[in-house]
Specification:
heterodimer; A: alpha+beta; Four Helix Bundle (Hemerythrin (Met), subunit A); Heat Shock Protein 90; 4 domains; five-stranded mixed beta sheet; 18 helices; B: mainly beta; 3 helices; globular
Chain lengths: 547, 146
């Protein structure tokens, strides 16, 4: 992984490759094992999940021996022993014993992370876990003498899914390909524009196949970055299991559309939001069993997570069949928290009221629970989703449940932007955050008071003279704030790829990244959320007062 | 390859001074087409450059050395830190010299205070003075201020 100073005393390069391969595979396998373990616990009579977990742990143990990773090997061995006991049915799959397997897998994962960072196993041992496994095992039959026998005659497709038809490629290489294809597309566009301007028919004819090929190339490279959404959902069965015991509720999880492809980076970013939403649904949405029975619902609550492609987006829906949103409660809370004056609250319709749940500092849970806790609210989820160019929305019906939809762009990096200028410099801003573009004249006349952010001022561009005549106000909404962004001119609309900010600028709230515009120049991409912060009271100015 | 790269360095001109950068750190040299200014950036960060589809952070050697901003075009020396590309902006490139050609300077001679922080030392070369720059400390400047 780039960015890190090369560690000293690392294994030789050939070993590094092996280790990397091992890490990637084991992490994938651990995800599978987690899902299978939940399945196994649900129905211990089903053999397939257990066989699969056993195989994974067995493979892990073998690889550790080969790669000289004694700590992992010892842990895997103990875990394998326990699984062997399950398999021989010497041992009941109790919540306690299954949790112990989960804990072991977690420990393996933690060691892998350290291994990835340092290139060697972290110091210490896992005797605490191993001792507990031993104590548990000791209650029955003697230790398993033959843990090394993997499931007999079961080398089916489950063992190595699709591995023959795919290869592993570092994501850095894909990023490079993406970058180069972007440059190709920009060069192509400049050429095409030139051909058009000169009216050169022959050049235009030669360009036609290039135009086609470059587009296709870029499209295909984007596709290589896609991963099935299922990878982000793999943690959910486990989460549901934990939530059931913590909340004393009965829950089923329905997952749909696991094969839906999504950019790897988007997937990583959205994962946290997904688990947060599921946790919320279990905690706030689904009623306790007794309450469900009392209103004639099945005792077991259902949480569904599904993903589908829709246009250039992926839509992930998280729904529950719980109690739905208590709009009256939300209204009262919004007034109590001072988000809206009491006299105005009555006039707001249900839709407006419901939106308050995304307000920073809002929490409908009357009490703080262990599960949802406080602090991290839906506002954070919304910010995270918006940051990657997505949107979150929901519908709710009292007594029937709530359905959240998260809409995210297929490829993180491709965004529709407006090119604006301020103080002789061009900036890019995501179109989705802009609801309206007004001339300065119109903005003054519209009579609507909203905070105004002057781009040249917040960036201290030291603008000379009065605002130019083509100055414009972009009406934006971000982070729950509606505000006007005052720019010198709106130049253009483009579809661009956003690159991360250089490290010297990381953490600067006003920029979301940077990009290379169609003409080859670099432009900064403004962060609507950061600008919205400038529009909050302290620095806000009323549109009418701007001069 | 006649000599291992770390035995040589590249000289550059900044204002009226001569500076050296170890060749082992230099990835490429180019004339940037345009540099996009970076408002709110830490001192020394000049802007962003498109270098073959990659966004490169440009660092002004003049600013880092505490010199007034110069007139005219820049010359960029590409270096990397981690996986991130940077460009050091100088007024003009000089030549490639062997490190062994550097002569120690009699005691008492120091470079300007702002340069001391980012240099490996001051040497004599062909009868003039040359400050050998420490690329890592140079690139660390912006980070520290950020």
């Amino acid at each position: 992984m780039g960015g890190e100073a090369p560690g000293c005393g690392r294994a030789p390069a050939a070993m590094d490759d092996l280790l990397r391969e091992f890490l990637t595979e084991t992490v994938d396998n651990l995800n599978v094992a987690g899902v299978e373990l939940v399945r196994f616990e649900r129905d211990p009579r089903e053999r397939e999940p257990l066989d699969r977990i056993f195989r994974i742990v067995h493979t892990l143990k073998g690889s550790c021996g080969f790669l000289k990773l004694p700590r992992l090997e010892t842990l895997a061995h103990a875990c394998e022993g326990l699984l062997g006991r399950f398999r021989d049915e010497a041992f009941p799959a109790t919540s306690l014993s299954v949790s112990l397997v989960f804990e072991s897998l977690d420990r393996v994962r933690a060691i892998l992370v350290a291994l990835d960072d340092d290139g060697r196993e972290p110091a210490g041992d896992d005797m605490d876990l191993i001792a507990r496994i031993a104590t548990l095992s000791a209650k029955d039959a003697p230790p398993v003498p033959n843990p090394a026998k993997p499931a007999v005659g079961k080398s089916g497709p489950a063992a190595r899914p699709a591995s023959d038809r795919s290869i592993r490629v570092g994501s850095a290489l894909l990023d490079d390909l993406m970058r180069v294809s972007g440059e190709l597309v920009r060069a192509r566009d400049r050429l095409a524009e030139l051909a058009g301007r000169r009216g050169d028919a022959e050049l235009a004819r030669c360009l036609a196949p290039l135009i086609h090929a470059a587009t296709e190339l870029q499209h295909d490279i984007r596709r290589t970055r896609q991963q099935p959404v299922g990878e982000a959902l793999a943690v959910l069965p486990r989460l549901i299991r934990e939530l059931e015991s913590k909340l004393g509720k009965k829950l089923t999880l329905c997952v749909d559309g696991v094969q839906t492809g999504l950019d790897r980076r988007v997937l990583d970013l959205v994962q946290e939001s997904l688990t947060h939403m599921v946790r919320n649904a279990a905690d706030h949405g689904i009623e306790p069993p007794a309450e469900r029975v009392a209103v004639g619902k099945p005792e077991m609550g259902t949480i569904s997570v599904g993903a589908v492609h829709e246009g250039g987006d992926v839509v992930i829906a998280i729904s529950d069949d719980g109690r739905g949103l208590d709009l009256a409660g939300v209204r009262a809370k919004a007034v109590e928290k001072g988000f809206v004056p009491a006299e105005k609250a009555g006039a707001l319709d249900d839709r407006d009221i419901a939106r308050f749940i995304f307000h920073p500092g809002f929490s409908t849970a009357a009490r703080v629970t262990k599960v949802s806790g406080r602090g991290v609210g839906l506002d954070v989820v919304r910010d995270n989703v918006e940051r990657i160019g997505g949107a979150i929305d929901f519908t709710t019906e009292r007594g029937r449940g709530t359905r959240f939809t998260i809409r995210i762009p297929l490829a993180l990096s491709v965004t529709q932007i407006l090119v604006v200028s301020a103080g002789e410099q061009r900036f890019a801003i995501a179109q989705r955050a802009v609801t309206q573009i007004l001339s300065m004249e119109h903005a003054r006349q519209s009579g609507e008071a909203m905070p105004l952010v002057v781009l040249a001022d917040v960036l201290a561009l030291g603008r000379q003279a009065p605002a130019p005549s083509d100055a414009a106000v972009l009406v934006m909404s971000a982070a729950g704030v509606r505000f006007g962004l005052c720019v010198d001119a709106v130049r253009d609309a483009q579809e661009i790829e956003v690159s991360p900010l250089p490290s010297v600028m990381r953490g600067e709230p006003l920029y979301a990244g940077c990009t290379i515009l169609g003409d080859g120049d670099v432009a900064l991409v403004l962060d609507p959320n950061g600008l919205a912060d400038c529009a909050r009271p302290a620095s806000a100015r009323e549109a009418g007062a701007a001069s | 390859m006649t000599a291992a790269p770390d035995t040589r360095f590249l000289t550059v001109i900044v204002a009226d001074g001569r500076y050296g950068i170890r060749l082992s750190r230099v990835t490429d040299m180019f004339r940037p087409r345009t540099v996009t200014p970076l408002p709110r950036a830490p001192k020394g960060i000049h802007g962003l450059i498109n270098r073959r589809g990659r966004v490169v952070t440009a660092i002004s050697l003049r600013a880092c050395l505490g010199l007034p901003a110069g007139e005219g075009s820049h010359y960029a020396i590409g270096v990397v830190r981690g996986a991130e590309p940077y460009a050091l902006l100088a007024d003009a490139p000089g030549e490639i010299c062997a490190l062994s050609a550097l002569e120690p300077v009699p005691g008492g001679l120091v470079c300007r205070a702002s340069a001391a922080e980012i240099s490996e030392g001051v040497y004599g070369l062909d009868g003039t003075l040359l400050t050998l720059l420490d690329v890592d400390r140079l690139l660390g400047l912006g980070r520290k201020a950020a």
